[in-house]
Amino acid sequence: MPTRSSIPATPRIISPSPTPSERDALDSYTGPMTRAARRRLATPLPVSEEGNEEDGVPALRKARTRSRSPVETRPTAGRRTSKKRTTKTADAKTTSTGSTAAAPKGDMAVSSENQEREVSNGHLLPPQPAGYTGWGWKDISRSPSPLGLIPIHRHWKAFIHKHEVPRKALHVSIGFFVVWLYLSGTQTLSVCPYLMAALIPIAAVDVLRHHNASFNRLYVKVLGALMRESEFTGYNGVIFYLLGAWIVLGFFPKDVGVVGTLMLSWCDTAASTFGRLYGRYTPRIRSGKSLAGSLAAFLVGVGTSAFFWGWLVPTKGPMPGDELFMFTGTLRLPQLLSEAVGLTPAQATISGGLALGIMSIWSGFVAAASEVANVCGLDDNLTIPVLSGLGIWGFLKIFG
After folding, report:
1. Is 331 a domain residue?
2. Which biological process terms from the Gene Ontology are attached to this UniProt entry (predicted)?
3. Residue 207: CB partners within 8 Å, gap ≥ 6?
4. CA nearest 182: which of 79, 50, 73, 313?
5. Does residue 104 lie in a domain region?
6. 246's torsion region: left (phi>0), alpha (psi -120 to 50) or beta?
7. Backbone dihedral angles phi then psi of residue 350, each to the nearest 5 degrees
8. For the chain: N or C, fewer Cβ within 10 A?
């Protein structure tokens, strides 16, 4: 029996112009639509040149000159532009406040003039005080930035701003002053009161300048050559320098305290100098720290340790207090470790140039590590001497 073939249904032809019922169904759909589809669905309503007076946005009263699209775009609140605004934009903004009264000519001229100025997006604004005290923990980062906050930095860009010659000269001179104090037989504990006597007034003046803008400008004008721009709203690095030297000289043995201060003076300067010169050619260890700067700190740390324990102490000494040194030219394994590997006390002890070399390499490693370390965002003038002192003291506590 032959099967009856089904007659296919007549396909429905959708008109480009939808019916009102179809338009209502499409209006309820909230999916993404292209601009072309939105224009097809929009009803071509006549556009009034004067606009609707009852509309809540009077700025839309005037029709656009290029497009007659009935879809009105309302201004987005909070948007900022860096382009210059014309007088017409200023007039539209003045009427958008809801006031239908005409403004005086003088006020309108001032408003137009203000609106024509560039509106900055705030991306390159100088750092502002973070709170009541005028600074924040983020302001402790002392990397220089050309923001023009310190006038002398603009006049001496290469000498002061880029290379920081006056600041580094002061930084290095502290190390030679420490060497002079050692050669004069001065004890480290006798230096601590002078450091604290200088720290208290300098810190008080720094707090005062953050509460007085005019005094801060005078302070920056006088001492701007020794400052970094981040210290305009942050604390001066001299405070942390004095505090770090006070801690390492007051709480560690004499030789550890002296070497820790020399690490702060010379290794930090070497890392900053060579990091800026060659840091772009080497891998970056962390933000603001490069392999070039760390290698410079390591080499200078090795040389500083060899200079102090290998030449200054045996040649110019002994000085008062040298008998309390932790490093006396010998290194030995701990007794438990030497017994575990079966070494006699003589075999587990090294002295002379080998001991000095190991001590110097370890000191250089500690100097480089403390220069790279970031301890809660604290200033490296504080962390370098303290971490160097802890590293050398711990090493000599085990092997000294």
Report:
1. yes
2. phosphatidic acid biosynthetic process
3. 133
4. 313
5. no
6. alpha
7. -125, 155
8. N
